[in-house]
Design goal:
6 copies of one chain form a homohexamer. With about 190 residues, chain A is an alpha/beta fold. The first copy, chain A, has 5 helices and 9 strands; from the N terminus they run βαβββααβαββββα. In chain A, the strands form 3 sheets. In chain A, strands 5-9-8-7-6 form a 5-stranded mixed beta sheet. In chain A, strands 1-2 form a two-stranded parallel sheet. A two-stranded antiparallel sheet of chain A has the order 3-4. The longest helix of chain A has 16 residues. In chain A, about 40% of the residues are buried. β2 of chain D pairs antiparallel with β3 of chain E, so a sheet runs across the interface.
């Protein structure tokens, strides 16, 4: 039954407001076992002149980009080996950890590490999950990997999960787990 | 600057309301780049007699348990090998997938699978993340494993991540990824 | 989907608040074809010290009595011939019109008028409807009459409808229509 | 003093919103003895993109037609003997009961019944009352009948009351009481 | 932390709404020691068709003029000796009291009184304060006077304070205190 | 017609809430020419557990003392020559300016200055006005002085006005204007 009223400054797009409505709905469902139908979200938009903090009118901050879309675009660029475009999506202090690596800071390190492991790899996504973590949006993608081993034989159906942190519209961290070693060992 | 008013039925505990306030705050921060300080959440509680849907008063549904606490308790029971207590926390249709396994449905299967892999394993948690997914609360735990190989030698610092789904207060799915095979292979 | 917030002074009973919630729900349904389930009413109660008009705190006026209950009690008293108790429920300027009468002002007139028409009459109610009219609550009761003609023969199943106006907890007008003449004539 | 906030989807006309405001005002006055002046109704309109239930945006249902206007139009058509237009305003399962009739289902039955009773009849309305009943809007019209008896003599000033039920913009029931038999018998 | 929602009829200008927002913010700070940043004011504007009192839609009253701007204009006109324009800003029943005078009702009286006191005087404003008093807006101006004594010698730096009452956009009272006599006496 | 909803933390006394309601009402009247009756203030109180900023529950700050009462008490103490109690009501950096003085910082300076001016003085108050200024509450008191000149002759009816600034419950500034020199000179 909960009814959520969100008072926001005017200036967000319909898509951004849908994202907000759905995030608020999920927040309620995280605690209250209401059926979806019973959770109402109503957005009150205020033009700047109808909103004041400390007696000063305020302008809305631009919405944050959708971290899920942003991560999927990054993964697409990586799979297409459009490395400079992918690089541009990374924030200051970016780090990534893959199975058996320490913290890598550049895509070049990643390419070098992957070289002896597989000729190429493509991802099939089973699910993508995004939510707000402490100080960063978090995106999980999971599914299966297909590709070719260095010897040219094919593989497929290897489980993976990636975790990304997104701050201010930039990817600042990637952590990867998968069953490649498990499969190779078998 | 967003101000969130949440209208809920009376009957939730202070802890449950804190969880709700924080989930709503995170929902806002997922879309609007407001500083924490600038996001206000105000809960309006209605005793049943002050709330009606379709002209009928309604009683509040009990809050859902905190899925993070629930998953951590399950993991504690598993590590302590209190299997029947752990089993009681699993919901109908429970499935789990570990590296190299298909879908397992019972803890006995898990124990049998783990036998040749390690004598025992303990987890050190780097982080736990919980949020509402589609139709289930989702909990991610990640960190490092320590333990002994079947030959009695020790290992430690092996990365893992677990993903849990929690529905109606029961764990209904667990997916596990880790670097055990990577480390053993090296 | 409509959500109604009613801000009222503290001091109304649960029953009075239920009446208000249902009246508000009906008001919405009078205009918006929402299913019952989708109309939410939330009452905000303010203790006098949290409410001010023109800078002055205000006390709540006592709720009006339920006009439906009040009219049914009046009809019960009339049927039981407890005339003085019935009389006490009538307001200043009370008038009643029955088939073929002009405006009558006292119950004695009514008794006199009824004398040659029937020995006694009892009412079976099919429905009672109450709502707020212009300046008065209006109650309609309808159903069938049974009783005995002056010659002692019985009758039953004669349609009637009564309309009452209630102001400040007193009945101020009654209008009656029925098929007694129709039936007698046949 | 009550203040009513009604949160509705955008799309209702000014006339429909006036009807809603007045129905809500009457609902309050049904329970709280506030002077008219002291009852405030404020409508919050939400464009579809600012309203979500279960995370889904919703479109407003078209408002229900004003049942009072609808019934008066039907009565006008009947008096003008525009029967097919009147017929078009009746809903499935329509029934009507007049003095001395059982349930009639067609206007033809009504015309046949009225034939031996009067040559024609016109209505003068003293009042029309409309409100939301259980599952239907209810309209009462009352006043006096004038016309000619079958023998051509005139009559006038005969009290009547009609009760109508309106569902989904169609009249589904009419009940009529009047003093015709009373007058004829006298 | 206070959040103020002000529900007003549509039709006020941005400047008028800023004045309202700031007055509401000051009202909060008069009682609650919140930092400016923590006081939020949100204005809900209702077009006439979305607002009803007693079931009647209402039009907004035009905003009152800013009394501070109005008083400063009056003082400017007086200093420029544009007496008829200044006179036009005075309301019915205007009275003024200067040091040593009784109640004066016309600007001519004032000019006559000032004649033997100084050749001319100009004001330097240290501060202007405006707020709503009982039944009138009140404006205080204070600062220092400069000018010439009747003998042509100059003076400056003499403290003054003026108090004005403004009703319905007209100045209805002025009270003046200053140190002219103190300075002359010394 | 304006309706003001003030959302505040629970913990303010009835008197403090009355002060807040009245200050908000005055703020509205400063801009909107609504009759007193038509300005409604409704306070929503939130216990700490129902209010969060940045996901953290907050406790209410104690209300500021009524600056009017505080200044009147200070004036009473001064008139009664209870100097140490009066001194205790002054804040850091306190300054006062009287006719013909520069900035004085201590009550001793004031006493010394007044010595040759009058034997004693008492105040009759015509009005006290208090409102929130920039960073301080401001209190104006005005009326007439009575007392004895140094030569023992009595005086009365001399106009005065005092302006006080109050910060954090302490008086930090006093400015005084009066007609003593005007009267003495005449």
């Amino acid at each position: 039954m909960p009814v959520i009223e969100a008072h926001i400054l005017e200036g967000y797009s319909a898509v951004e407001k849908t994202r907000l409505s759905q995030a608020l709905t999920q927040a309620v469902r995280f605690v209250v076992p209401a059926p979806d139908e019973a959770i109402t979200v109503m957005l009150h938009e205020y033009p700047s002149k109808d909103y004041a903090r400390g007696g000063q009118h305020r302008a809305p901050a631009p919405a944050l980009p959708d971290p899920e879309a942003l991560v999927l675009e990054y993964l697409r660029l990586m799979e297409a080996r459009e490395l400079s475009a992918a690089q541009a999506m990374l924030g200051d202090g970016f780090e990534m950890v893959f199975p058996g690596t320490g913290a890598m800071k550049t895509l070049e390190e990643l390419i070098a590490w992957a070289g002896p492991r597989y000729r190429f790899v493509t991802k099939t996504y089973d699910a993508v999950e995004a939510f707000q973590g402490d100080g960063a949006a978090v995106v999980y993608t999971r599914g299966t990997l297909a590709g070719e081993w260095p010897d040219g034989t094919a593989f497929e159906g290897i489980r993976f999960i990636d975790r990304f942190e997104v701050r201010d519209g930039k990817i600042t961290r990637q952590d990867v787990w998968n069953d490649i070693a498990e499969v190779r060992a078998s």
